[in-house]
Structures are given as C-alpha cells and as structure tokens.
Amino acid sequence: QAPWLIVPAAGSGLRMGANRPKQYLRLAGRTVMWHTLQRLHSVFPEARLCLCLDPRDSCFEPDVVPFARWQRIAGGGERADSVLHALEWIAAEEGDEQALVLVHDVARPCVTAEDLMRLHDAVDADAVGGLLAAPVADTMKRDDGAGRVASTEQRAGLWHALTPQGFRLGLLRDALMDARRAGRGMTDEASAVEAMGLSPRLIPGRRDNIKITHPDDLALAEQILAAQAS
Ligand code: C5P
C-alpha cells in the first residue's frame, strides 16, 4: 500500500532573501521543488501527494508534479497549519485512520532513495511512527540573549530532526489538532506526537539531507547532488 505524501511548500522562505520562495530557486538547472518531488516519486511512484501551496503563489507550475494522483492544498499561516489542512483533506478521502502519511519539506531536495525507503519501512513497522534524524556533531551552546554563553548543552543524545516524518493518519491529525487547540507552536510533526506522551522512533539518516534555508545552502545542495550522482 503506497503511503500518502504531504509536502508543505507554502512558506515564504524569507531567510533566503530572494525575490521568490526558496522552492522556486534554481538548483542544478531545475527548481528546488522539482528535485524534491522527483526524489519522492522515484521511491513512491504510486503515492498520493498533497502539495501545500500559498494561495497567492504565482510561481507554481503544475507540470513540475510527477505524480498521477495529487492535490493542491491551501497552506496556512504556519507549517503545522499547512500540514493540518492536508491531513483534513486526506481524512475526507481515505477511510482508513491507520493509513501511513509521510511529511517531507519541499526545501529538502537532497534526501536519498535509501533514506526514504528506510524511513518508510521503519515507521510502517512502528506503533508510534518516527522521523529521519542525524546525531549532532558540534558542541551545543545556549545563549543568554545578549550574545554570551549561558550554558553548554549535553551533546550526547541530541539529534537534528530531519524529514520525512511518518505517522498514521488518525494519530497525526489528532496530535496536530491538539497542538493547535493548545496554541503550541511546532516546527515538526514529531513534537506534536510527543506532546501526546508518545515517543516517535529516531531513524538515523544522512547528514546531507539539508534544508535549504540560507543563500549559501543552494551551492552546498548542488555539491551534494553532484556527489550523490557520482
Ligand atoms: O521556513 P521553513 O524552512 O522552516 O519551512 C519548512 C517547510 O514548511 C518548507 O517546506 C515550507 O515551504 C513549509 N511551510 C509551509 N507553510 C507555512 C510555512 C512553511 O508549508 N506556513
């Protein structure tokens, strides 16, 4: 059974400082969005895709979507709102609350097929679900709000939360609705599930599954794609 895919792509990407959202910037001759959707399609060709877009988005071209079955979803104010809109649409289409849903940032075009398959198989076999994650390599400092170190965090046991993150439809929708009701801001799906008292599985993933955020990330992503292809 192919999973449902949600790709939140309704962000403005202000930190890139570009004249268009970062998913429409050029990366190795194509847009970031093109690469991300191709990677997902190569592993899940039969999946049904929900693509969350800003209703005012004027850059999107439907030709970029390689999936046969896909739906444009109106994004919300925060990433979690965009994902929740997609989950509500899926819930109306899909009778099975246990259907598997994978959420992947449009801004992560370097995710590999191997990581996508491993993530899928791990969350499909898990009672809670989980996320790709990479161990933190640097020593982590917390600031005092005035440019000085307040404390050093224990690095051991810290992970970067990556995407995809995969959960059952009913669980994820309940988790995100609870979070919205409680007014909790969240930057990923796992944290909403954690707030329900559950422990998502950490599935070790590649560190080069970067999220394009700052201008120099585009050149880095180009190098990563070239290295992966060689
Ligand atoms: O801004 P950031 O990189 O953290 O966004 C992560 C992902 O969430 C991006 O793929 C972005 O397009 C998406 N997003 C969204 N709706 C929002 C804000 C961000 O779909 N309101």
Automatic annotation (TrEMBL):
Q: Does the keyword Nucleotide-binding apply?
A: no
InterPro entries reported for this sequence: IspD, IspD/TarI, IspD/TarI_cytidylyltransf_bact, ISPD_synthase_CS, Nucleotide-diphossugar_trans
| Molecular functions per Gene Ontology | 2-C-methyl-D-erythritol 4-phosphate cytidylyltransferase activity
Pathway(s) the chain acts in: Isoprenoid biosynthesis; isopentenyl diphosphate biosynthesis via DXP pathway; isopentenyl diphosphate from 1-deoxy-D-xylulose 5-phosphate: step 2/6
Keywords, sorted A to Z: Isoprene biosynthesis, Nucleotidyltransferase, Transferase
UniProt lists the family membership as follows: Belongs to the IspD/TarI cytidylyltransferase family. IspD subfamily.
Q: Which NCBIfam families match?
A: ispD
Q: What is this protein called?
A: 2-C-methyl-D-erythritol 4-phosphate cytidylyltransferase
What's the source species' lineage?
Bacteria, Pseudomonadati, Pseudomonadota, Gammaproteobacteria, Oceanospirillales
Give the encoding gene's name: ispD
